[in-house]
Automatic annotation (TrEMBL):
Family matches, as InterPro entries: Anit_sigma_mycothiol_RsrA, Znf_put
Residue ranges of domain Putative zinc-finger in the record: 11-44
Record gene name: rsrA
Identification of the protein by name: Mycothiol system anti-sigma-R factor
Amino acid sequence: MSCGEPHETDCSEVLDHLYEFLDSEMPEVDRDKFKRHFKECSPCLEKYGLEQAVKKLVKRCCGHDDVPTDLRAKVMGRIDLIRSGQAVPEHDVTAAPATPQES
């Protein structure tokens, strides 16, 4: 997605890190770059608005459950693997090995 205009911060970078922006999990200098980009790029601003609305809806409907710290760490680890282009295992490699069932 792009408006076809050149920007200081590329649309793909903005969209790749949109949730970090929404969750305030990026340095303020990067947040400022994204804010400038949204002022210039209506397609990215529209995507931002949509994702923000979805996030609010999910929080309202499902925001009462705390996510276990270990689960969050596993999910973030998988996201990092995907972003770095590394192969992601099909199964959970952090789980304890399965024990054979007794007959």
